[in-house]
Amino acid sequence: MGHKIMIHPAKLTLVALASLGLLLSQSCQKSPEAADPTDPAGSGTTAAPTQPTETAVVNLYSARHYDVDETLYQEFQEKTGIEVQVIQGEADELIERIRNEGAQSPADVFMAADAGRLWRAAEAGILQPVDSAVLEASIPEYLREPTGLWFGLTKRARVLVYNPDRVQPTDLSTYEALAEPQWQGRVCVRSSSNIYNQSLLGSMIETLGVPATEAWAAGLVANLARPPEGGDTNQIEAVAAGQCDVAIVNHYYWARMAKSDQPAEQEVVAKTAIFFPNQDDRGTHVNISGGGVTVSAPHRDNAVALLEFLVTPEAQAVFAEGNNEYPVVEGVSLDPIVAKLGKFKVDEVNVASYGRNNPEVVKLVDRVDWR
User: Fold this and answer.
1) Which residue in 99, 195, 250, 290 is deepest, having the highest Cβ count within 10 Å?
2) Confidence bin at 55 (pLDDT 50/70/90)
3) 65 annotated ligand binder
4) Looking at 32-46, 247-261, 304-318, which range is the least confident one?
5) Cα separation of 176 and 199, whole Å?
6) 39-45: which pairs have CB atoms within 8 A and are 24 or more residues apart?
7) What is the pLDDT of residues 160-208, one digit of tens each?
8) Per residue in 274-320, pLDDT tens?
9) CA distances (Å), 229 to each of 1, 183, 224, 371, in order?
10) What is the overall mean pLDDT for the chain?
């Protein structure tokens, strides 16, 4: 892919990590700890989180690249004594790395910023199922893989950003409506190769079927104001510049700009607004970032303990306030900018369907020439 895989500074070298993983894979027990039924949100029952019993380290291969994550790993270490060793890279590269490392892989946890990439990790055979009462009680069923291979840790809404000088909120309704003739030459969206768009299409296939989703994609392509280019931030900037009237983006890109102290970004935000589509039917599409325990994890209990820590209300609040994401745990406060966007109905189709339908999505976008 051409992206450099980075080892977190001040952590073990990759050679040392690999050696440690080999030794521990031969000597450490990997059976899961038993846990009682739980409700961490506080509705009256209790549970025992997984207790770390191994060497005080957990090796995380992460495709998330946010400063807030490092804050959480430090808090986890202070609370448990377990040091989080981080190797960062692009998701597909990390999946291939873990697969090539095989049974000697030092990786304990794989983390990605999209359900589609987590599905790819599961298909590659690098994840193992986890039975955790804490995770199952904390994370709604639709935000986790049904057999426990991976779990959503944060949510991101795929919203519409529009120019209020050219579009009224009453003009907007659904994703599907953007394929109608009145939007011809007025829509911006990034490439179909982007996993966020592929996951949106995967969710639509799950609900609407392939023919209806393909018809929508063809109509959307016909209504584009320009060929797809750039990332979500570029789509927001294009709406503000009048290059298009509406675009499909993840909500946190707009929220990040809204919190910026840069005059140019403040100007973009002042010229745009957010709309949650499909509120009168299935709800707005949400994606996740999440993680799972690797199949040969040398520190399995520590890996489960890390995932369980990341769904505590305290950790969820850090995710929400530090990276403008929506928590997966109910009752956690939002970042003030995100909170001002208002409450919205979520499409609760299971996120695992995004990856399962991805092969059909790839063929579909090729047929409609969505570049």
Assistant:
1) 290
2) confident
3) yes
4) 32-46
5) 15
6) 39/137, 40/134, 40/137, 40/138, 40/311, 40/312, 40/313, 40/329, 41/137, 41/138, 41/313, 41/329, 41/330, 41/331
7) 999 999 999 999 999 999 999 999 999 999 999 999 999 999 999 999 9
8) 999 999 999 999 999 999 999 999 999 999 999 999 999 999 999 99
9) 18, 19, 11, 9
10) 89
Report yes or no: 17 and 59 within 8 Å, Cβ to Cβ. Answer: yes
Q: How far apart are CA 128 and CA 95, in angstroms?
A: 14
Q: Is 66 annotated as a binding residue?
A: no
Q: Which amino acid is at 112?
A: A
The CA distance from 304 to 108, in Å, is 9
Degrees, nearest 5: CA angle 59-64-66: 110
Would you call 81 exposed, middle or buried from its count of C-beta atoms within 10 A (0-12, 13-18, 19+)? Answer: exposed
Report DSSP state, residue 142: G
Query: What domains lie within the chain, and their CATH numbers?
Result: 6-155+288-334 (3.40.190.10), 156-285+344-367 (3.40.190.10)
% of the chain beyond a pLDDT of 90: 84
User: Residue ranges of the alpha helices (H) in the chain?
Assistant: 14-27, 67-80, 91-101, 115-123, 133-138, 195-208, 210-222, 232-240, 251-258, 263-270, 300-310, 313-323, 336-339, 352-356, 358-367
One-letter amino acid at 203 equals S
Q: Could you count the other beta carbons within 10 Å of the beta carbon of residue 32?
A: 15
Q: Cβ distance 162 to 239 under 8 Å?
A: yes
